[in-house]
Model the fold of this input.
Amino acid sequence: MSEANPDKAVEDWATGGEPATGPQLSYLSTLAREAGEEVPQNLTKAEASRMIDRLQQASPRVGGTGSPAGGTADEAGT
Done:
């Protein structure tokens, strides 16, 4: 299998320093918009992965604790 091992630490990824992928940036854009955050320019794969993990922890979309389940950023007026 050529994909990264999800159990491997981000710091140990051989490709972690490469630019973030399109799918990473797309998903990160959605999570960041819902959290009211900006996505920094020129993220690496590792940086994007860390930011995705952090935003997922706060997102009700993926079971985080950020806001009540079923609520969206638009409903919250953001």
Notes: The chain is about 35% helix and 0% strand. The radius of gyration is 14 Å. The chain has a mean pLDDT of 79. Residues 66 and 72 are 10 Å apart (CA to CA).
